[in-house]
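Most newcomers find our protein records easier to grasp once they have seen one. Nothing more is needed to start thinking about how sequence determines fold. Here is such a record, shown just as it appears in the course material:
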Amino acid sequence: MTGPDSWDFAGLSVAQRRRFQQIMKLLYVNGFATVEELVETLKVSRMTVHRDLDELHNRGSLMKVRGGATVARTENFESSWRYRRNQHQDWKLAIAQRAAELVEPGDSIIIDPSTTGHIFCQLLRDKTPLKVVTPSLAIIADLAMVSGIELHVIGGVYDPHFNAFMGANAEEEAAKFRVDKAFMSTAAVSGHTICHSQARAIALDRQLFNAAREHILMVDSSKLGHTALHVFGDASEWQWAITDSNADPAHLEELRGVGVEVAVAQP
Protein backbone atom coordinates (compact mmCIF):
# COMPACT_ATOMS: atom_id res chain seq x y z
CA MET A 1 0.00 0.00 0.00
CA THR A 2 2.98 2.32 -0.30
CA GLY A 3 3.20 2.84 -4.03
CA PRO A 4 1.25 5.01 -6.46
CA ASP A 5 0.08 1.99 -8.46
CA SER A 6 -2.14 0.99 -5.52
CA TRP A 7 -4.34 4.11 -5.85
CA ASP A 8 -7.90 3.09 -6.58
CA PHE A 9 -9.88 5.60 -8.62
CA ALA A 10 -13.25 3.87 -8.64
CA GLY A 11 -16.09 5.14 -10.75
CA LEU A 12 -13.91 6.50 -13.54
CA SER A 13 -13.43 5.46 -17.12
CA VAL A 14 -10.45 3.29 -18.01
CA ALA A 15 -8.77 6.26 -19.71
CA GLN A 16 -9.28 8.51 -16.66
CA ARG A 17 -7.96 5.89 -14.25
CA ARG A 18 -4.88 5.43 -16.44
CA ARG A 19 -4.22 9.18 -16.54
CA PHE A 20 -4.78 9.57 -12.80
CA GLN A 21 -2.36 6.72 -12.08
CA GLN A 22 0.26 8.30 -14.34
CA ILE A 23 -0.17 11.69 -12.70
CA MET A 24 0.18 10.25 -9.21
CA LYS A 25 3.19 8.14 -10.23
CA LEU A 26 5.03 11.21 -11.55
CA LEU A 27 4.15 13.24 -8.46
CA TYR A 28 5.06 10.35 -6.18
CA VAL A 29 8.59 10.27 -7.62
CA ASN A 30 9.26 14.00 -7.94
CA GLY A 31 6.87 15.63 -5.48
CA PHE A 32 5.87 18.23 -8.12
CA ALA A 33 4.91 18.25 -11.79
CA THR A 34 4.20 21.12 -14.16
CA VAL A 35 1.22 21.21 -16.47
CA GLU A 36 3.63 21.04 -19.41
CA GLU A 37 5.24 17.86 -18.05
CA LEU A 38 1.84 16.26 -17.65
CA VAL A 39 0.73 17.28 -21.13
CA GLU A 40 3.85 15.62 -22.55
CA THR A 41 3.55 12.51 -20.35
CA LEU A 42 -0.17 11.95 -20.87
CA LYS A 43 -0.30 13.06 -24.52
CA VAL A 44 -3.44 15.08 -23.87
CA SER A 45 -4.43 18.74 -24.02
CA ARG A 46 -3.73 21.33 -21.34
CA MET A 47 -7.48 21.55 -20.74
CA THR A 48 -7.65 17.82 -20.00
CA VAL A 49 -4.69 18.09 -17.62
CA HIS A 50 -6.32 20.98 -15.77
CA ARG A 51 -9.60 19.04 -15.47
CA ASP A 52 -7.72 16.01 -14.15
CA LEU A 53 -5.80 18.10 -11.62
CA ASP A 54 -9.03 19.77 -10.49
CA GLU A 55 -10.63 16.37 -9.90
CA LEU A 56 -7.60 14.99 -8.04
CA HIS A 57 -7.39 18.18 -5.98
CA ASN A 58 -11.07 17.84 -5.02
CA ARG A 59 -10.43 14.22 -4.02
CA GLY A 60 -7.59 15.34 -1.74
CA SER A 61 -5.02 13.33 -3.70
CA LEU A 62 -2.84 16.33 -4.58
CA MET A 63 -2.59 20.09 -4.25
CA LYS A 64 -3.09 22.07 -7.44
CA VAL A 65 -0.70 25.03 -7.44
CA ARG A 66 0.31 27.69 -9.94
CA GLY A 67 1.75 25.99 -12.99
CA GLY A 68 1.19 22.41 -11.86
CA ALA A 69 0.51 20.19 -8.86
CA THR A 70 2.28 18.82 -5.80
CA VAL A 71 1.91 16.05 -3.26
CA ALA A 72 4.50 17.56 -0.91
CA ARG A 73 3.21 18.96 2.37
CA THR A 74 2.23 22.63 2.38
CA GLU A 75 0.59 24.85 4.98
CA ASN A 76 -2.80 24.04 3.47
CA PHE A 77 -2.24 20.47 2.32
CA GLU A 78 -1.34 17.23 4.08
CA SER A 79 0.36 14.75 1.77
CA SER A 80 -1.26 11.34 1.43
CA TRP A 81 -0.20 8.54 3.76
CA ARG A 82 1.36 6.62 0.86
CA TYR A 83 3.56 9.54 -0.12
CA ARG A 84 4.55 10.48 3.43
CA ARG A 85 5.44 6.88 4.29
CA ASN A 86 8.43 7.12 1.98
CA GLN A 87 9.70 10.53 3.11
CA HIS A 88 12.57 10.87 5.62
CA GLN A 89 12.51 7.19 6.47
CA ASP A 90 15.89 7.26 8.24
CA TRP A 91 14.79 10.13 10.45
CA LYS A 92 11.49 8.46 11.27
CA LEU A 93 13.18 5.17 12.11
CA ALA A 94 15.60 6.85 14.49
CA ILE A 95 12.72 8.69 16.17
CA ALA A 96 10.68 5.50 16.41
CA GLN A 97 13.61 3.62 17.97
CA ARG A 98 14.03 6.33 20.61
CA ALA A 99 10.28 6.36 21.28
CA ALA A 100 10.25 2.57 21.69
CA GLU A 101 12.64 3.00 24.63
CA LEU A 102 9.75 4.66 26.50
CA VAL A 103 7.56 1.57 26.16
CA GLU A 104 7.59 -0.95 29.00
CA PRO A 105 6.06 -4.44 29.05
CA GLY A 106 2.56 -4.20 30.48
CA ASP A 107 1.91 -0.72 29.09
CA SER A 108 -1.31 0.27 27.40
CA ILE A 109 -0.59 2.64 24.53
CA ILE A 110 -2.29 4.57 21.75
CA ILE A 111 -0.60 4.96 18.37
CA ASP A 112 -1.99 7.53 15.96
CA PRO A 113 -2.28 6.86 12.20
CA SER A 114 0.92 8.72 11.31
CA THR A 115 3.63 7.18 9.16
CA THR A 116 6.11 7.51 12.03
CA GLY A 117 3.60 5.66 14.18
CA HIS A 118 3.56 2.85 11.63
CA ILE A 119 7.34 2.50 11.80
CA PHE A 120 7.18 2.69 15.60
CA CYS A 121 4.63 -0.13 15.84
CA GLN A 122 7.04 -2.50 14.09
CA LEU A 123 9.49 -2.13 17.00
CA LEU A 124 7.08 -3.35 19.68
CA ARG A 125 7.44 -7.11 19.33
CA ASP A 126 10.09 -7.21 22.07
CA LYS A 127 8.02 -5.03 24.42
CA THR A 128 5.20 -7.46 25.08
CA PRO A 129 2.84 -7.88 26.79
CA LEU A 130 1.17 -4.72 25.52
CA LYS A 131 -2.28 -3.32 24.93
CA VAL A 132 -2.33 -1.22 21.75
CA VAL A 133 -5.16 1.07 20.63
CA THR A 134 -5.14 2.50 17.10
CA PRO A 135 -7.32 3.63 14.19
CA SER A 136 -4.51 2.98 11.68
CA LEU A 137 -5.16 0.27 9.10
CA ALA A 138 -1.43 -0.22 8.51
CA ILE A 139 -0.76 -0.71 12.23
CA ILE A 140 -3.73 -3.04 12.58
CA ALA A 141 -2.37 -5.17 9.73
CA ASP A 142 1.13 -5.28 11.25
CA LEU A 143 0.11 -6.08 14.84
CA ALA A 144 -2.97 -8.25 14.34
CA MET A 145 -1.08 -11.53 14.62
CA VAL A 146 1.69 -10.51 17.03
CA SER A 147 1.74 -12.71 20.11
CA GLY A 148 1.56 -10.76 23.35
CA ILE A 149 -0.11 -7.67 21.85
CA GLU A 150 -3.76 -7.16 22.72
CA LEU A 151 -4.96 -5.03 19.82
CA HIS A 152 -7.92 -2.66 20.22
CA VAL A 153 -9.20 -1.29 16.90
CA ILE A 154 -10.88 2.09 16.64
CA GLY A 155 -13.38 1.76 13.81
CA GLY A 156 -15.18 4.31 11.70
CA VAL A 157 -15.21 5.44 8.10
CA TYR A 158 -12.04 4.46 6.25
CA ASP A 159 -10.12 7.51 5.02
CA PRO A 160 -7.55 6.50 2.36
CA HIS A 161 -5.73 9.82 2.68
CA PHE A 162 -4.74 8.92 6.25
CA ASN A 163 -4.99 5.14 5.78
CA ALA A 164 -7.09 5.06 8.93
CA PHE A 165 -10.61 4.90 10.32
CA MET A 166 -11.95 8.35 11.12
CA GLY A 167 -15.19 10.27 11.61
CA ALA A 168 -17.74 10.59 14.42
CA ASN A 169 -17.83 6.87 15.26
CA ALA A 170 -14.04 6.73 15.56
CA GLU A 171 -14.04 9.80 17.79
CA GLU A 172 -16.71 8.28 20.07
CA GLU A 173 -14.78 5.00 20.34
CA ALA A 174 -11.49 6.77 21.09
CA ALA A 175 -13.12 8.70 23.91
CA LYS A 176 -13.92 5.44 25.72
CA PHE A 177 -10.28 4.44 26.26
CA ARG A 178 -7.84 5.29 29.04
CA VAL A 179 -4.22 4.30 28.43
CA ASP A 180 -0.76 4.90 29.86
CA LYS A 181 0.90 6.57 26.87
CA ALA A 182 0.01 8.10 23.51
CA PHE A 183 2.57 8.10 20.70
CA MET A 184 1.55 10.66 18.09
CA SER A 185 2.89 12.87 15.32
CA THR A 186 1.67 16.06 13.66
CA ALA A 187 1.96 18.08 10.44
CA ALA A 188 4.00 21.00 11.78
CA VAL A 189 5.33 22.65 14.93
CA SER A 190 5.53 26.44 14.87
CA GLY A 191 7.42 27.58 17.94
CA HIS A 192 5.54 25.62 20.57
CA THR A 193 2.24 25.49 18.65
CA ILE A 194 1.22 22.07 17.34
CA CYS A 195 -0.46 22.35 13.93
CA HIS A 196 -2.51 20.16 11.60
CA SER A 197 -3.15 20.58 7.88
CA GLN A 198 -6.51 18.81 7.83
CA ALA A 199 -9.33 19.89 10.14
CA ARG A 200 -10.98 16.46 9.95
CA ALA A 201 -7.98 14.89 11.68
CA ILE A 202 -8.06 17.17 14.71
CA ALA A 203 -11.17 15.83 16.45
CA LEU A 204 -9.94 12.22 16.42
CA ASP A 205 -6.41 13.15 17.43
CA ARG A 206 -7.76 15.18 20.34
CA GLN A 207 -9.71 12.15 21.61
CA LEU A 208 -6.61 9.97 21.22
CA PHE A 209 -4.61 12.56 23.13
CA ASN A 210 -7.19 12.90 25.92
CA ALA A 211 -7.28 9.14 26.43
CA ALA A 212 -3.64 8.99 27.57
CA ARG A 213 -1.91 9.85 30.82
CA GLU A 214 1.46 10.56 29.16
CA HIS A 215 2.02 12.04 25.70
CA ILE A 216 4.98 11.50 23.36
CA LEU A 217 5.25 13.65 20.22
CA MET A 218 7.25 12.00 17.42
CA VAL A 219 8.12 14.74 14.92
CA ASP A 220 10.94 14.75 12.38
CA SER A 221 13.01 17.89 11.85
CA SER A 222 11.32 18.79 8.55
CA LYS A 223 8.20 19.73 10.53
CA LEU A 224 9.86 22.00 13.08
CA GLY A 225 9.75 25.73 12.50
CA HIS A 226 6.84 25.39 10.07
CA THR A 227 3.14 26.04 10.31
CA ALA A 228 -0.04 24.41 9.05
CA LEU A 229 -3.56 25.72 8.66
CA HIS A 230 -5.14 24.44 11.88
CA VAL A 231 -3.97 24.66 15.50
CA PHE A 232 -4.14 21.42 17.48
CA GLY A 233 -2.77 22.74 20.75
CA ASP A 234 0.34 23.79 22.63
CA ALA A 235 3.51 21.77 23.14
CA SER A 236 3.25 22.39 26.88
CA GLU A 237 0.55 19.68 26.92
CA TRP A 238 3.15 17.06 25.96
CA GLN A 239 5.66 15.37 28.24
CA TRP A 240 8.05 14.32 25.46
CA ALA A 241 9.05 15.49 21.98
CA ILE A 242 11.34 13.22 19.99
CA THR A 243 12.99 14.49 16.82
CA ASP A 244 16.13 13.81 14.80
CA SER A 245 19.59 15.36 14.87
CA ASN A 246 18.91 17.56 11.84
CA ALA A 247 16.68 19.76 13.98
CA ASP A 248 17.61 23.41 14.47
CA PRO A 249 18.72 23.82 18.12
CA ALA A 250 16.64 27.00 18.37
CA HIS A 251 13.48 25.00 17.68
CA LEU A 252 14.41 22.51 20.38
CA GLU A 253 14.97 25.29 22.90
CA GLU A 254 11.49 26.67 22.16
CA LEU A 255 10.02 23.30 23.09
CA ARG A 256 12.17 22.95 26.20
CA GLY A 257 11.09 26.45 27.19
CA VAL A 258 7.52 25.26 27.76
CA GLY A 259 8.56 22.24 29.83
CA VAL A 260 8.81 19.54 27.18
CA GLU A 261 11.46 16.83 27.61
CA VAL A 262 13.20 16.84 24.21
CA ALA A 263 15.07 13.79 22.92
CA VAL A 264 17.21 13.95 19.78
CA ALA A 265 17.66 10.73 17.82
CA GLN A 266 20.62 10.15 15.52
CA PRO A 267 19.63 8.62 12.14
Summary: Confidence is low (pLDDT under 50) at residues 1-6. Residues 87-265 form a domain with the Rossmann fold fold (CATH 3.40.50.1360).
